Amino acid sequence: MPKVKIPRKSTLIDMTAMCDVAFLLLTFFMLTTKFKTENPILVDLPTSISEIKIPERDLVQVALTYSDVNKKGRVFFSMDGQPRRTVLINYLMQRQDVPLKYSAQYDKTSSTILLSNNVPPDLKDKVVREFSLESNVDVSLARLTYWLQIPAETREQIKSQVEKDGKDVFVKYPDGKTEKFDTGLDTTVTLIEGDKKTSDLIVLTYWTRILDRKKAIESGIKGEPSKIAFRGDSKAPYSLFKKVIDALQDADELKYYFITNLEAKPQ
Amino acid sequence: MAELDTSSKGGGKHKGKGKKSKKMSTRVDLTPMVDLGFLLVTFFMLTTTFSKPQTMEVKWPSKNDKTDKPKDAPAVKQSASFNVILGPNSKIYYYSGMFSKTEKPELKVTDYSSEGIRRLLLAEKKQRGDELFVFIKALDDANYKNIVDLLDEINITSIKTSSVFLVDVTEDEKQFIKDSNL
Known about the structure:
The complex is a heterodimer of chains A (267) and B (182). With 267 residues, chain A is of the alpha/beta class. Chain A is built from 7 helices and 13 strands.
């Protein structure tokens, strides 16, 4: 009896179809993606029924945080777009809103930022570069230039030490004066020249508007001005919110977007 | 025996006789390409943010000038006002009408639930219609969520934003709340 021949089938599968699917998905994700911005400011957003999507571009965010450890709210400012930030810091430094007076070093053992008066000539470039890479303005404008000289990882460490662990960090000035260091913008409003007011937020929104105008002139289109969005923690105290609103009202910024999570619409 | 080229029809490239071009398979092993494709898909899937957060658009009144106020805006009547004071621990104090040293309305307390402030706002709206003015005030120990929640309630009850005002709480009112012990 002859043997029954079982035909051998090839184990190779036609991959073309699978390849098609893979690349279809790939194209879809590539076109819909917007990379997660590295946003170290974690806030617990409140909810609302509003369904307006957050504007994609030309957004400045004011974050209000609250830390349970030191029972304190802080304000942060962030601007999207590296080129825009580069222009912003240059403006700030030209106009002496952010003076570059000290060079800084962090001493870990005593948790102190040591400042000295000698400023190397290449320091300005370094500060500009660091600012453009950092999406948030973490500290008050008065502290910004020396803060940015500290390496990024150390900055993160200091931030978590101050905000999460509630440990004290100090700043030692060249004249020997020591002061407590804290993150977040300075919300105090000071009067200059009669009834003109200034504070960190007023200065920052002012330059944001200048940036908008510059962009409009360069592109020749009257584009949408940057929108101001609040990214507030549910527990951020009202007093802090009030201070921020006051400053923005002084800067004649009256339209805000409150970033919220979606909640179901009631019937 | 002469071989016949049966495969190329009408192409005319191979004129047949003699030279036999060696045919290479056109099949390529696509496995690495699929691998690469899925690797990239995974990458994009993990880095993408799908659900963008929502925003609530709010316009605030200007501090100094009243230019952006519509001309036909009705005059604010204190007597027709509904005052909402946001307190600590998600408490809402509210009263209707005027408040002065001599004239003290009844202060009541409610919460952020749909049976609480929403029902009150709807009732006020039904009763007074366009005459309703809502004054929102907040004590210092209220929080950001309270403000957003209340603005959201205003949105839900579709009260005109032009008749909603966010004002500071006065010292008298603070005392009033303290005294009423709610």
